[in-house]
């Protein structure tokens, strides 16, 4: 991931992405996008249509990415569990990031599990970042202790 670009790159992936919350599968797709950015593990964005009905609701708050623009937050629901602000989207992204429209990213730490081709991912450290750590990416990653000044 140290050879990932800055500004980030958006690319399609045919990896199977499965998200589970409250013991229920709330999303499943082989048509996700991943965002690759220097010092970060990939962030996966799933098509809105990959989520089961009732899994997504608007949440309060927003944040700004110097590259992608303004993100809106989402509450995710599954199996009676409510994860407030556990997902985000870019409804009107900055130029060059238009493929992210109608795609949702989730914080793996807020879910029961997130899987890529059957491998359970680990959440990127730091709480703010939404990267998905697998055995295919090597750190250190932004978000870990001592990386605030990167």
Commentary on this structure:
The chain has 150 residues and is an all-beta fold. It has one domain (9-133): Metal Binding Protein, Guanine Nucleotide Exchange Factor, Chain A. Helices cover 0% and strands 46% of the residues. The protein has no helices and 13 strands. The chain has strands at 9-13, 17-21, 24-29, 32-36, 43-47, 56-65, 69-78, 81-89, 103-106, 113-116, 119-120, 122-123, 132-133. The strands form three sheets. The protein has a seven-stranded antiparallel β-sheet, with no helix packed on it. Strands 3-2-10-11 form a four-stranded antiparallel β-sheet, with no helix packed on it. A hairpin with a 2-residue loop joins strand 2 and strand 3 (24-29). The mean pLDDT is 91.
List the helices and strands and how they pair.
Elements: E1 9-13, E2 17-21, E3 24-29, E4 32-36, E5 43-47, E6 56-65, E7 69-78, E8 81-89, E9 103-106, E10 113-116, E11 119-120, E12 122-123, E13 132-133
Antiparallel strand pairs: 1-4, 2-3, 2-10, 4-5, 5-9, 6-7, 7-8, 8-9, 10-11, 12-13
């Amino acid at each position: 991931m140290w050879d990932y670009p800055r500004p980030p790159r958006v690319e399609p992936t045919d990896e199977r992405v499965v998200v589970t919350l409250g013991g229920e599968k709330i999303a499943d797709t082989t048509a996700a996008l991943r965002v690759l950015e220097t010092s970060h593990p990939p962030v996966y964005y799933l098509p809105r249509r990959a989520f089961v009905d009732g899994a997504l609701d608007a949440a309060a708050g927003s944040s700004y990415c110097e590259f992608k623009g303004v993100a809106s937050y989402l509450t995710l629901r599954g199996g009676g569990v409510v994860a407030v602000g556990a997902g985000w989207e870019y409804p009107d992204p900055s130029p060059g990031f238009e493929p992210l429209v109608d795609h949702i990213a989730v914080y793996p730490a807020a879910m029961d599990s997130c899987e890529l081709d059957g491998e359970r991912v680990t959440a990127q450290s730091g709480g703010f970042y939404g990267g998905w750590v697998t055995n295919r990416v090597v750190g250190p990653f932004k978000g870990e202790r001592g990386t605030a000044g990167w």
